[in-house]
Amino acid sequence: MIEYFLCFVLFCIGLYAVAVKRNMIKIIIGLSIMGYAINLFFTLIGYVHNAAYPILSKVNITQQTSLNMVDPLPQALVLTAIVIGLAITIILVSISIRLYEKYGTFDITEIRKLKG
Amino acid sequence: MLPLVVVIPIGIAFLISFLGKYYKKLSDILATVACISLAILSFLIFYELRTMNYEPLVYKIGGWLPSIGISMVVDGLTAVMLIVVNVIALISVLFSVSYMEKYTDKWKYYALFMMMLTSMNGLIVTGDIFNMYVFLELGTISSCVLIAFGTEQDELEASFKYMVLGTVASTFILLGIAILYSYYSTLNMSDISLAVSKGSSTIVITFLTLLFVVGFGLKAAIVPFHAWLPDAHPSAPAPISAMLSGVLIKSLGVYALVRILFNVLGVVGSNILIILGVISMVVGGFLAIYQKDLKRMLAYSTVSQVGYIVFAFGLGTPLGIFAGLFHLINHAFAKFLLFLNAGAVVYATDERNMENLGGLREKMPVTAATSLVGSMSISGVPPFGGFWSKLFIILAAVQAKEFTAAVIAILISIITLSYYLKLQKQTFYGKLSERWQDVKEVPLTMCIAMIIPAVICAGLGLLLLPQIKIVFLDPAVGVLANGLEYGSIVLQNIK
Q: Which residues of A touch B290 (CB under 8 A)?
């Protein structure tokens, strides 16, 4: 149970960074932390303690049931989610580099052309 | 035939990104051909669905049965959404051909455009909830890059804002999917729906509803989560603003939200949607009055009108769902048209502040006339489609005994009319100032691209004729009103 709670704490740290920090890079890091928290949560759902890896082998196929194996599906999904997270991070970082070129700062309170 | 709606745009995006650099004209041709074939394809899919008597068409990717493999499902609602999205995309490409000449690297634009279209089509046809998430992210990423396409200060800023909020939204959605998977051990939407209908705890459903409302609400720009929209939509190039406001927030936001809440979680009609919808209507409407920027006013109007749609869906009665869907279609075409008009004005004058414009009617007759049609349709003046859909929303609210909300809806529609009149007066009527003496009407393709949606806008009221309504809208409403029966209906049709 404690690991789910820690996941939640990690998620909140990320959310705090996104909501409070003013530096664009810190916001991006916060978003990544939120993503990692969710990925960790997703993997934990499929995790079974002391279980085998989910690959069928011909040697002892009789002893293998779905009960003593880790659920592989969340891991596959998390892989996809990590790749998507990578794409998002790349775009955010490249946008913030372009913004830095225009304004000479990473502070979002100084980048405020759009209002209302 | 079904996977083609995803395969064609993504394949064309791939081709354009490889060849577009070397053959400049090729990207125009490829994108136009792809959009024409997609529009025809969406009508063919609708026809096939009709010959199958509206039994859902299911395509199993790789031949795997659902719950193991990913499936694509087309039912009444999907078919209607596909037609709306692909017809609008076609007109948008037609408009882009001339409009995007002022930007460099047009082929990159087309490649991203096709990716965005892939995401919308994919999200609409998919029957797998994680697949939906992937397409959602694809849509967010490609539209974010398109918003930043001008790489000026406000474009980059809007894009950054959109991306941060969009990522927070998708984190919430992914959390929701994780919890769904941990409870029901499947990601197939029809399987989950079947499992939910066999009984599930209310707390879990409520928690999931909240997560998905926050997630998809951010994508659909319902009011507490709307902050990115008035920045992002005006900053994009005109055809993209039109696509974003016209269909992207409706397919990525409203469609996905409604599909998951109604058909997967079985929450047909909820007070959260009603309250958020009413707040969006009011806040969007009032903020729109004070805008001086032409495109920004349209963006706030989108917030307000999406509020109407969400409110109507939130009522959950068949009449409410019908009204919401009808308003969704009307608003898609009308707002699309208005953003194209704004794009034409910007193309001709390079000025977005309405106070500096005026009298453009003499110089740009086509733009002015089509813009009048769009404004009147959105603000609900009788012969146009928008009047009927607002009428049905108010009727549905009265029928569901939401009298306060009905009164608010009527008042806000008057406010809508007032700010659209302001838009018309300040931009197209009044005295032509010296500055705009040599303004010309936009090129022919852009004119055609504005006339087509104007004709559609004027004719959308015809959807209410009983013969057409039974064919087109009723099956879509039936799908949503059936709620959790979705699962068993789809699973029956898997051969």
A: 116
